[in-house]
Amino acid sequence: MNPLRRIDTFFRHHPVLTDVLVACWLMLSFSAASVAAASPVGSTDGATVPWLLLAFTISVGQLAPWAIRRWRPVLAAGITVFFCLVQLLIGPDLLPSIAIVPMMVHNLAANGPRWASFAGLGTALAGAVLNGLKIAYAPPSFLDPGADLISNNSSMYGDPTQQAVIAVSFAVGAAAIVLAAWAFGDLARTRRLALEQLRDRARQLEVEAAQERELAAADERNHIAREMHDIVAHSLQVIITQADGGRYAGAHDPQVAVATLGTISETGRKALGEMRRLLGVLRGPEATEFHPQPGLVDLEDLINTIRLTGLDVDYAVEGNARRALPTGGELAAYRAVQESLTNTVRHGGPNARATVLLNWTNAGLEIEVTDNGRGAAASESTKGSQQGLVGLRERIALFGGTVQTGPRQGGGFSVRAAVPYQEI
């Protein structure tokens, strides 16, 4: 890696340490320059010692706060302002360390609160004006060993025109530097906030994408669970019932056993075909076998298959469809009837009887499946996990429909579902 890039990476990853190192460098460089600037040429008077000590203290006080300028920008600026006021009142007119002022203004505009940014700008502009007035009009400090030299050899301090020119020139020049520093700092602040917003937006999009993936995965798992339950539960229940019946009937009438085995074989093949279709969807589009989904026209075949288990089923349709059901609505209605009749076969007990009624209304299709079996009063050995009813509610809810299930008064169980028409 490029050495310059390594240095840049180190400074970006250690901002506080960088500020401390910069502050130390500023104090070593500008403090010595400030002491040299405050020393009168050719003077050996001992009175220069407190004057130089004052200049050194002011310089260090102005520069040292740079070490905390990121995590305490207002405090750092406040300390610098204090020592600038000391310089303005009793210190030298100009010190090289005064260069910290536009740097602090830039830092406040970039990293400080908005109110501190404007307060720092106003304070710096006021300081520029006051320093210009001090240079032009204020008498030399009594601590300055070169005061007599300046007052005796600088006749311009008695000329009002020259004093005004000096004050205005210094104030305008310093103010221009301060304004430029604040403007660049404000631009840096704006850019930083924009980058933070972009990063926050990117993080938010990542979170939303992860949540969408989780929701999509959960929805797909629910969909697969519903399909697996509808296929496996119904088919296996028919197979088990037929196998039990064929085992007893075969001892007296072998022909019944043969017919029963045919029903078991046909049901198993249908279930296997549907399972292959479902697994093809999971593997991807290239492995998918597309077959028509069952609908209302297939209810007769479904009911005939259920009747082979020994369950007596009455089927009726009332009314006529005014509009088409939404895409997948007929499959949902088919699965509702399938789940209800499968539950009756499993839990209804002997001599159970079921009724399937489809009623076309002005709002959509109403499905009612009732039985006179033991239903909700079934023993623990025949109770299921109710995953089928949960899947039924989820499937019907996808189309804005409703499902009501529960025991009937006087015995039995009922399932009522409503699937609305497709919106125009």
Automatic annotation (TrEMBL):
Record-annotated DUF7134 domain positions: 8-192
SUPFAM superfamilies: ATPase domain of HSP90 chaperone/DNA topoisomerase II/histidine kinase
Pfam name, any one: HATPase_c
Coiled-coil intervals: 188-222
InterPro entries: DUF7134 (IPR055558), HATPase_C_sf (IPR036890), HATPase_dom (IPR003594), Sensor_HK_TwoCompSys (IPR050482), Sig_transdc_His_kin_sub3_dim/P (IPR011712)
Keyword presence, Kinase: yes
The UniProt record lists the keyword Metal-binding: no
Domain of life, source organism: Bacteria
CDD domains, per the entry: HATPase_UhpB-NarQ-NarX-like (cd16917)
Cellular component GO terms, alphabetical: membrane
Catalytic activities: ATP + protein L-histidine = ADP + protein N-phospho-L-histidine
GO molecular function: ATP binding; phosphorelay sensor kinase activity; protein dimerization activity
Keyword annotations: ATP-binding, Coiled coil, Kinase, Membrane, Nucleotide-binding, Phosphoprotein, Transferase, Transmembrane, Transmembrane helix, Two-component regulatory system
UniProt domain Signal transduction histidine kinase subgroup 3 dimerisation and phosphoacceptor: residue ranges: 220-286
Domain called Histidine kinase/HSP90-like ATPase: residue spans: 330-422
EC number, UniProt record: 2.7.13.3
Alphabetized Gene3D superfamilies for the sequence: 1.20.5.1930, Histidine kinase-like ATPase, C-terminal domain
Membrane spanning residue stretches: 48-68, 75-95, 115-133, 164-184
Enzyme class: transferase
Name this protein carries in UniProt: histidine kinase
Source organism (scientific name): Citricoccus muralis
